[in-house]
Amino acid sequence: xPISVEGVKTAGAPAQxxxxxxxxxxxxVIVLPKGIVGCAAIDVSVMEEFDMAAATAHGTPEAPLVVPxxxxxxxxxxxxxxxxxxxxxxxxxxxxxxxxxAGT
Length: 104
Fold this sequence. Notes:
Helix content: 10-25%
Largest sheet: 6 strands, mixed
Radius of gyration: 12 Å
Number of helices: 4
C-alpha cells in the first residue's frame, strides 16, 4: 500500500501532494496553506460544511487520478464557496485552480 508525499511547484505558496494507493483504488490531493485541490474522493459538500477552500476533479477507471501531476492536468468539477471566492471555477484545469489557491 504505497503512500507518497511530494512537493508540488507553484508560483506562490508551497504545496504538498499526497498519493495513496491500495489494491482496488487510489486517492490524491494537493494541500496548500489556503485549501486543497483533490480528486473526487474529497466530498465538496463536507468541505463546505467546514468552510474550507476545496476544488475537486473526477478521474475515470480508464484515466484515474493517481499522482499530483494527474490532478494538475485534470478538469475541476467541484468547488466550494471559499474556493470560488478565490476565482476557482468548474471547467478550469487543476493547475489553474492550484495557482489561484497558491495566491498567484
